[in-house]
Each structure stands twice: as structure tokens, then as C-alpha cells.
Amino acid sequence: MTEPIWLKEVKCPACDAVFKTPRVKPSVLKVKSSEPDFHKVYEDINPLLYAVTVCPECNYGARNDEFDDKTLEYHPEILKMARAIKESKKNIDFPQTKETDVETAVKKHLLAIMFAKHYKPEDPLTIAGLYMHLAWMYREQGNNEKDREYLKPALEYYIKTFEKGSHIPEKIGVPGIMYLAGELNRMFGNYNEAVLWFSRAVKYDQISNFPNIEHLARDAWEKITEEKRKEGK
Ligand SMILES: [Zn+2]
Fold first, then answer.
1. Is the pTM above the cut of 0.85?
2. Which of 61, 116, 214, 222 gives a 20 to 30 Å CA spacing to 122?
3. Coil, strand, or helix at residue 8?
């Protein structure tokens, strides 16, 4: 059997340090269940723990594909931040081993968010996704308080993504972002806001291209109607 976790040697795009970082082979992942906010629970290995790469020397971090592919020559602010961390010697020296844990993954995600917020222009969808990872990692540990704490900025950045209207993945499209804004509002009990987003998603011009999203939005909307009926509102 092939090893599910492997160590990849990468070069930091901010400071050129060469280091090893753990990655998961996608072929070994098995989805056990999924939740309406697109959280997937996996058997055995949790890919969220390996989703972000952080340089142990300058602490520049990003989602793996971005870390591997992005060049930073046109992002002087990112380079400046990374240099300052490296020179201060206050960097977190992440272990270059296959073993990792939630605590390490959380630290890596927070660093990736800090850098992502300094990109010009900022990509709100990337930031929203990183916050969702944090919420899900805590949810899997049964920490509902931290789960909600990170869902809040995720919602804020999904709304920014919608307002900006660019870099939206084809798979879920604009209605997918509307649906997520609705679902997170629903999770927070903001039912009126949630219905507004679900109805926007369902009425979207090309919603027929996103049957899955339409189904999810109608389902969630129905849940709210049910909830309100029970409460006698
Ligand atoms: Zn670096």
C-alpha cells in the first residue's frame, strides 16, 4: 500500500528557503459524510490538516496549490512582511515531518490568512475558504464556540466575494456563493437574511446550470419555513 502522507520538498516563494512539508495523496481520501456548508468529514485522514503550507523560516503561508504556483515578485508588501518575520527571528519553526495536529494546522491557517489579507488585490474567496477550514477543524473537535467564531469572518468574506464578483469557481458559480451566504446566516439564526440569499440564488439567471446548488438552496429555505412554523412566527 502506498503511504497516504508524503513529504514534499518545496521552495518558499517569499524567501527562497527550501524545506519539507507534509501532503496527502488525494486518492487515499474517503468522504464519510458531508454537511450543508460543504464541510466534508473524511475517514482516517483529515486533509484539512495538510491543506496549507507555511515556510518555517519566514512564515509565509498559503493553500498548497497557491504556495507551489504563485510567484510573489509583484507583491512587495508580502515580501516585506516575510522578510520582517525572518529577520526578527520570531518565526514559528514548523517541524518538517509527516506528523501534524490540529494545533499546528490552525497556526498555519492563521498565518495564511494574515498574508492573504495583504495581497493587492485581496482575494476574498481564498480568505473565506481558510476561515471555513478553521471552523470545520474546531467543529470536528466538538468546539462549537470556535466553530462559530470563524464562521463569522467566513460569511463576511463570502459576501465580499459576491460583491466583487470575480474569481468565483465555475463549479459552484455565483449562486454557490449566494447559497453559502444564506446557509451561514441560517446557521447563525439570521433567518430573514438567509431567505434573502436563498431566494437570490434560486432566482439567478443561470441557476439551471447549477442544479445541485438550486436543490441545496430550496432545501435550506424549506428548513427555515419549517423552523418558523414550529416557532409559530
Ligand atoms: Zn520563506
1. yes
2. 214
3. strand
Whose CA is closest to 28, among 1, 58, 62? 1
pLDDT tens digits, one per residue of 54-72? 999 999 999 999 999 999 9
> Is pLDDT above 80 for 233?
no
Please report where in the chains the cell 518545496 appears, as a residue.
Answer: 10
CA distance 126 to 62: 9
Region label for 95, one of left (φ > 0), alpha (ψ between -120 and 50) or beta (otherwise): beta
Integer CA distances (angstroms), 47 to 27, 81, 88, 101, 205, in order: 11, 28, 32, 11, 35
Ligand 1 centroid distance, CA of 19 (Å):
9
CA 56–ligand 1 middle distance (angstroms): 7
In angstroms, rounded to a whole number, what is the distance separating the alpha carbons of residues 82 and 201? 40
40-43 and 52-54 as β-strands: parallel, antiparallel, unpaired? Answer: unpaired
Query: How far, in Å, is the centroid of ligand 1 from the Cα of 82?
Result: 7
